[in-house]
Amino acid sequence: MKPGTFVTTLEDAGFSPFMGIPCSVLKPLLDYIADSNCSTRNYLCSSEGDAMGLAAGFSLSGRLPVVYMQNDGYGNAVNPLSSLLLLYKLPVLLLISWRGEPGVKDATQHTVMGKAILPLLDTFEIPHIVPDNDEGNLKDSVAKAKNHCTTESKPFAFVIRKGYFDRHRTSISQSNTSLNRRLDYIRLLSAKLQPNDVLLGTTGFSGREMYQTITHKGKFYMMGSMGCLASLGLAIALEQPEKRIILLDGDGAILMKMGALATVGYHRPGNLIHVCFDNRSYESTGGQPTLSTTVNLLDVAKACGYTTVNNVKTTGKFEAILNNEAKYPKPLFIHIEISLGTEEELTRPSISPEEMRDCIRAFLQ
Ligand SMILES: Cc1ncc(C[n+]2csc(CCOP(=O)(O)OP(=O)(O)O)c2C)c(N)n1
Q1: How far is CA 137 from CA 16, 29, 56, 64, 129, in A?
Q2: Which pLDDT score is estimated for 37?
Q3: Superfamily (CATH) of domain 3-160
Q4: How far does residue 261's CA lie from ligand 1's centre (Å)?
Q5: Rounded average pLDDT over 195-201
Q6: CB of 254 within 8 A of CB of 261?
Q7: Which residues line ligand 1 (CB under 6 A)?
Q8: Domain extents for the chain?
Q9: What mean pLDDT do residues 177-206 have?
Q10: Of the residues 41, 106, 130, 172, which has the maximum number of CB atoms within 10 A of its CB?
Q11: Closest CA relative to residue 68, chosen from 33, 103, 119, 39
Q12: How far is residue 125's CA from residue 206's CA, in Å, rounded to a whole number?
């Protein structure tokens, strides 16, 4: 399906504006919406729950908003969906990508939600359609969605399969190429690791690059649960005070669950180093912009109670911090500004989540 046809069909039926969190399946759609020829307004936000709150406000103002998300993000949307949109009967159109569809090859982290998404929509009594490529059928489906939203005053969902959208000719990704890439920092860190260090990587490219590049035993790639790395790392830091716990996080992930920084600041583990790779983008879903362009994450970490915060724009400065790391009281937040770009051959771990769990558990004993 051409993303332009899709958006125009929705707009013609009165659906707009758009808001949400990206998924690579929706990349062509988001590339199209970012295109200057597209009249639809897209509101950036921090999480799928945040997007649902926005949608409720637009709905109260008489609009028919569209919230896009990955099916994993449906988990974040559930609370405002149930106790705001469904409770007050506020219509919204949900565009949910179907990662982990049973029988379709996909990354492991989508297995549970891949099976659950349609039954979950049924449980919430949200009618849903899995659209095919036919433009006539799309018009009928959009009319059905519009009719449900206006007569029942309730949400309706489109569940979008992998490969549904054709590519759009221009891509959102833009980068500040004067900066180093994340991989340069990960390689540097690899050379400075101590045998007892615990290295935890987030959803997205940070975790994947770390897992592929670094052979250190005490590593763990938290491949799903976007935004939970600080909480996970905090508990390990509190339980393992003799080890250095190093978190490799992304700006999009931190923004999604920014409250976790307050939890870290409150408990103040003396052995936690929290690295934020800030490329101002959701790079792993196609380079869509995050809110980090207008958020000073360094100030946020400081206000949340991190003992030391540092901004880094060069590998030289990062190296200097690592060489004198004992001088920086923890928790230490290192905000690294990076350019876009990763390895062409970036793989996903070949071991299962349970094997990964067993490796890190054994290391932590
Ligand atoms: C709850 C949830 N919403 C959306 C996604 C899809 N997703 C996977 S990685 C990612 C981008 C992460 O952005 P960032 O933390 O900035 O890291 P980068 O991609 O730049 O490495 C997104 C949106 C997800 N996995 N989980």
Answers
A1: 20, 18, 28, 21, 11
A2: 78
A3: Thiamin diphosphate (ThDP)-binding fold, Pyr/PP domains (3.40.50.970)
A4: 18
A5: 97
A6: yes
A7: 21-23, 70, 72-73, 76, 203-206, 226, 250-253, 279, 281-285, 290
A8: 3-160, 182-364
A9: 95
A10: 172
A11: 33
A12: 37
Give every CB contact of residue 54 below 8 A, 6+ residues apart in sequence: 19, 43, 45, 65, 67
The CATH class of the 182-364 domain is: alpha beta
Closest CA to 251 of 21, 18, 19, 17: 21
- What is the average pLDDT value for the chain, to the nearest integer? 96
Average pLDDT over residues 73-89: 97
Strand order across the beta sheet in which 245-250 lies: 219-221, 198-201, 245-250, 272-278, 332-337, 308-312
Q: Is 182-364 in the same CATH topology as 3-160?
A: yes
Q: Tell me the DSSP string of 200-258.
A: EE-TTHHHHHHHHH---SSEEE--SSTT-HHHHHHHHHHH-TTS-EEEEEEHHHHHHTT
Q: In angstroms, rounded to a whole number, what is the distance separating the alpha carbons of residues 275 and 311?
A: 10
Read off the tokens for 73: 């993000």
For ligand 1, the distance from its centroid to the CA atom of residue 143, given in whole angstroms, is 32
